[in-house]
Amino acid sequence: MQRLFRFSLIALLMVGATMQSRADFMDWSYRWSISPATVLSSGTGSVALALAQDGSGASSIPAATVTTSSSATNAAPDVYKVGYNLTLQVKDNNSHRSGDLTFHGLLSGTVSATSSHLTNTFSDPTEQLRLGGRLYSVTINPSLMTLAPPGSAVLPQINALVSVTNPAGHPTPMVQNPAPNVGSPGSVQSTPEPSSLVLGMLAFGGLGAATLRRRFCAKALALNAA
Hints:
Elements: H1 2-26, E1 28-35, E2 39-42, E3 45-51, E4 55-56, E5 60-69, E6 78-92, E7 97-111, E8 116-122, E9 126-131, E10 134-141, E11 144-146, E12 157-165, H2 194-225
Antiparallel strand pairs: 1-4, 1-6, 2-3, 3-5, 5-12, 6-7, 7-8, 8-11, 9-10, 10-12
């Protein structure tokens, strides 16, 4: 029973540490912006980047959905070689500090009304920022994509993978599900609340303590009877 009691105590400490790690990882928020504009034009066509809404910390966050339009023919397609900047503003809610990470994108290739040979690349897909003693490392995913032709039912999406390193230098556990795609509600998975886990561990520890008390009383009665 002593081992049972010790196990309960260790479990409680582990749950407390997990709760703190969860709070650390989710205690930040973000906002995307783009320059010079969200719609980049060339010839008869345009490429539109629909930015994701502001959100809270996650291991994967949406950045933008990309659509193309063009009325050009295959014989004379619209030609692109246009650069732009995609900027992620990160706010560390614990320290109330914020900073920007800028990724340099390039649209290059051709697109017509029915076909696309247009690619989107990032020359610096990974950027880092230190805020409130934490190191935020963000990687654009994918850093190279081929854009769909106009009218396509499946639209390419730009996402970002996020890693947060705490002051001790250890990655904070990824406890939140990846963010859903832009424009879709995504799926919600049921995860036990930390408070429920704590209550369960407390009950488990109480059961072990009660068992120890019963054994002690039984031994005392036996000694008195002797």
